[in-house]
Design a protein that fits this description.
The chain is an all-alpha fold. The protein contains 20 helices and 4 strands. It has a two-stranded antiparallel ribbon with strand order 1-2. A two-stranded antiparallel ribbon has the order 3-4. It is elongated, with a radius of gyration of 27 Å. The termini are far apart. About 3% of the residues have low confidence.
Length: 526
Amino acid sequence: MPAKRLNITFWKVALVAIVLVGAYALYQRLFFGLGAATHLSDAFPWGMWIGFDVLVGVALAGGGFTIAATVHLFHIEKYESVARPAVLTAFLGYALVGVAITLDIGLPWRIWHPIVMWNPHSVMFEVAWCVMLYTSVLALEFSPVVFERFGLKIPLRLVRAIYMPLVIAGVLLSMMHQSSLGSVYLIVPDKLYGLWYTPWLPVFFFVTAVAGGLAMTIVESYLSHRAFGKKLEDELLEGMARVMVVVLSVYALWKLQDLRLNHHLGLAFQLTPEAVMFWGELGVGTLLPAGMLAVTRVRRDQHLRFFAAVLAVLGLIMGRLNVAVTGMMRSSGVDYFPAWQEFAVTLMLVAAGFAAFAFAVKYLDLFPKHEMVGARPPALTPAFGLRGMPTANTLVVGTLWVLVAIGAGLLVLADSREARSRGSEPTQEVVLARPVATTMKVSPPYAFALGQGSPGVVTFTHESHLDYADDGCKTCHRRDFSLRRAGQAHSGAVTMARMEKGELCGRCHNDSMAFGVTDHCDRCHK
């Protein structure tokens, strides 16, 4: 018999290299701890492994519950051909999320504690249980593909008998989990930057997960077409793209309106790293793909549709990383950038997901047979077509690199500007009246903007208030005023009407704890 030739390709070599480097980084993390393998710290304990491996991984798995609900609950059966790969993608995503959470906690061998040590008052408890339950549900939803492959008829009948309740449970669990990840960050109103903190954060997480799941299905179908020769369901993908336009547009308008009502929209027009990342998320990753997919020609062109879906996926990734990393750095007082081990482990998990998907395509009936019989992967097209014009693939990749270069340049410019401004602003060291572990640097006296009809400017100083604050800094900064942005409230404007109702300064200046705000005007307005 002729000997089989070993089929070595660039992507196989790259996969092996990524796994080897990731395994070494994983060894360092498990045997030497988080401090040796990451740039995490007590001031910044959640970084890339939470922001990308957990928040992004869960969101990109949103196609599982979206397509399952479309096919089995709303009975739109024409999308059934993309249901199996969508469920597999969701299962792989959640399985890898479980691995990432295990790696991120300080003592990985205690990952089982939420099963027996219940804390129903914690959002993280709900997150842990939803991950476990939904991963189990996804495994059962995908199990018919495995049972069919090995001819296991009895288990196949059992699963099919309970398939509809499984789908309903999966949709409910995923909806709860997608939103509850946003609920985790509701407890840090004075740490999360104003461009991202909002009571609507759980809803935003859910809406963007729907859009991201649809975008990921489009990307997955295109890549399967290129890699395995699978037939491209243009009509189905065009329908998904049409829904994406609505979901992305609703999210963008809702987000901008929320920023306006919370008086945080101005932060988006400052040259800061946060503003650059915000427009990368909302502009490049939301408004641009929504505008592109609103054009019929773009939705029908497989390359342009894929490009718009990639932008939406990148926007989702940036949105989650903005909440977990960008939005938390300023309040932490540290400049966090992931260590190479964090990148290596993350790439290893992503590569494992791609390898598992390819394995399923090869050995399981993942796609309908009529889409795979006689199919061959399309030949790679040259970079330039007729008359030296670049092809669609080249334009897509080139445009992505241009956008990355522009974003990197703006980030460098914003960082340098922030560094110059920090060096020129005076800081004042104040030792708090109440015992604390360290000395804090607080802002110099702040003059509030002169309102209409105001008898004089109000200048706030920390020294005149610290001696009377019953709970230290928390007295004012826990519920009323921002700890990062001097003179700004957590929500709404600073007005006398609110103070007269007992809000903001009126909580203490009520003629009981301190002089009232309705008299002694000259004590504040000077």
